[in-house]
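User: quick one, fold this
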Amino acid sequence: MKSEGTRTVYQVIRSICIQNQSSSVDEDQRREAINILTASSSAIALAELAHRGRAKPYVILINEAIGGLTLLSLQTSGGTCISSVSFEICQIDMLF
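Assistant:
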């Protein structure tokens, strides 16, 4: 169930980050949504899905997690968000 929720996060990120010419979403609304996604726990959820092995038997989930992280990292504040999330996950792994 948790993996499917994270998969939904990926779908939202993909829909928002990849501009669609026929989209009715205003550019300001899109920017606001991207800022919310890069400042929230969505990056952590995607990183955990890709890193922790929860999705190991399901390669498509790992691919979607990496795709979501990549799309977030391409945004203005996304690089900082992704690097801090990666650091947090590495720190947690070192504790165990």
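User: anything notable?
Assistant: The radius of gyration is 14 Å.
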